[in-house]
Amino acid sequence: MSQLVLDKLKERFTTAIVETHSQHGDDTAVVDPPQWKAICEFLRRDPELDFDLPVDLCGVDYPDRVPRMEVVMHLYSISRGHRIRLKARVGDEDMAGADLDSVTSIWPGMNWLEREVFDMSGVRFRGHPDLRRILMYPEFEGHPLQRTYAADRTQPLVPYRTEAEAGMPIHKLEPFGPDEGMPFGRVRSPRPEDD
Amino acid sequence: MGDVNRSLTLEGSEQGFATTRVDALLGWARKYSLFSYPFVTACCGMEFMALTSPRFDVARFGAEAPRFSPRQSDLLWVVGTISQRQGPVLKRIYEQMMEPKWVFAFGTCASTGGFYDNYTTVPGIDKIIPTDVYIPGCPPRPEAVLDGLMLLQDKIARNERRPGVVKPRFDPVQNVEGLVQLRRSATDPREIVPALREREAKALAPGAPGGMR
């Protein structure tokens, strides 16, 4: 049953389907980025496929690969009860060319999801009506889910209080240290002032 | 207020009187009339609801009246994770409150950022505003919060502004045998498991007291 979607895709788009994978009803198609919108249009309009529910869209960064950013889309058909996962690989190591056609004209619900992928991963969507950050604030620089974003980099909107202002050391008080019942969280790497 | 410093005649008493200092009297009055501003952002809010409901009844401490305007409140409850985006809002709320004012960091996230050690979370509200009492827990038990409230009342009565931390008086990890410790410095869990197996085997052995038959 589930193979149907992949078969139809391969028959219609042949070379634009770079790779497929199917296991236990879990179908994936890796597609050629320029054909992204045409494939989406087909999946939505074809009466046998009828993917009417855009479930999710996200970006996955593989810094060792070129193209490095993988945009993953999950679709579901309420009427047919089948699913598919579409992937498109975009962007070189500097994220140049990391853009895709927006599919908001096909599924209006993709509007915010594309904004999220833009905000978190830095993929630009051509033809999106309002492509700005959705989770982070406008002052934020960079895209936090790119692997090149430093794990401990923060961009506070309010300058932190200094120790002189607070009249006390600003560090984690007891019992909040890593050895005091708070085992989660990254152990702070030693800094020059620590000695 | 200067005349309060004189000896007071208690109502209904002909001869009795009491003496006090103005600051002590004010502290005593303030500590039983804390008007709260709940700044609730996350799951700790559920525990805050439990705290204000009759079972735990924060009204016993005179702190049950929420004021949803910071201008009318003197105790700011920061309940939950504060994201960087909320930082300016929190600071503004704090600045709108009238003196004297106190701040509660309710739960681990408000106290230190909790396990959110990343680009989006403020690593403890004390990075932005002064904090009086830190209550650990994820979320804290209402008892821990009441403990923190009593700690704050004590601080108010003593006019003490150094921060205080609620500490568990009974740490089950240290008192229950064989409980796997979640701490980094703990015994390796792989060493604990064989001991547990042995104890289990002993309990299951025929004729063991309390064992299965």
Summarize the structure.
The complex is a heterodimer of chains A (195) and B (213). Chain A is of the alpha/beta class and 195 residues long.
Note down, in words, how this protein is organized.
- The complex is a heterodimer of chains A (195) and B (213).
- Helix content of chain A is 19%, strand content 23%.
- With 195 residues, chain A is α/β, with parallel strands linked by helices.
- Chain A has a single domain (3-156), classed as Beta Polymerase, domain 2 (2-Layer Sandwich).
- A 5-stranded mixed beta sheet of chain A has the order 1-2-5-4-3.
- In chain A, strand 6 (99-101), helix 3 and strand 7 form a beta-alpha-beta unit.
- Chain B has 213 residues and is of the alpha/beta class.
- Chain B has 2 domains: 21-165, Rossmann fold, CATH 3.40.50; 176-204, no CATH class.
- In chain B, strands 3-4-5-6-7 form a 5-stranded parallel beta sheet.
- Chain B starts with 7 loop residues before the first strand and ends in a 9-residue tail after the last helix.
- The chains are: A alpha/beta (195), B alpha/beta (213).
- The interface between A and B is medium-sized, with 33 and 36 residues.
Brief descriptors of the model:
heterodimer; A: 195 residues; alpha/beta; Beta Polymerase, domain 2; five-stranded mixed sheet; two-stranded parallel sheet; elongated; B: 213 residues; Rossmann fold; 2 domains; five-stranded parallel sheet; two-stranded antiparallel sheet; 7 helices; globular
Ordered list of secondary-structure elements with their pairings:
The complex is a heterodimer of chains A (195) and B (213).
Chain A: H1 3-13, E1 17-23, E2 26-31, H2 36-45, E3 53-61, E4 69-76, E5 83-90, E6 99-101, H3 110-121, E7 124-126, H4 163-166
Chain B: E1 8-9, E2 17-18, H1 22-31, E3 36-40, H2 44-52, E4 75-79, H3 87-96, E5 102-106, H4 107-112, E6 133-135, H5 142-158, E7 164-165, H6 172-175, H7 189-204
Parallel strand pairs in B: 3-4, 4-5, 5-6, 6-7
Antiparallel strand pairs in B: 1-2
Helix pairs in contact in B: 1-5, 2-5
